[in-house]
Amino acid sequence: MKSYDELIRIDSFSDRIRYLQTKNAVGMYTYGGLRSINQTFYHSSEWRRLRRKIILRDKGNDLAFDGMPINGRIYIHHIVPITVDDITQRTELLTDPNNLVCVSFDTHQKIHYAEDIPEPYKERTKNDTIPWR
User: Quick check: 112 and 24 in contact, CB under 8 A?
Assistant: First the structure.
């Protein structure tokens, strides 16, 4: 099973995205007309506390990748997708820190909807000020 512990051992940002790709699996269970169930959880104080812990652990970096700070809203991604049953039955998968990682909106979209990450992916480096390459 995929996990945060495995994810952070991957040396390339694009390979981390590939590791997490779900090919549109999101929505099949949690959004299929039952969005209110997951939104109730995501607005709970339990989730907000956990979210803060994950952001601190990952230092606000996209996919917990050093040097990739998220500029903007930080999303918390479930590495193994959750289902309605996970929410209603409060399974461990829902709140296990080893199943959570910080992502940007763009990265979250790539995980769920991108067919593939274009090659070659140019890794950003410290003091890299050129936004395109």
Answer: yes
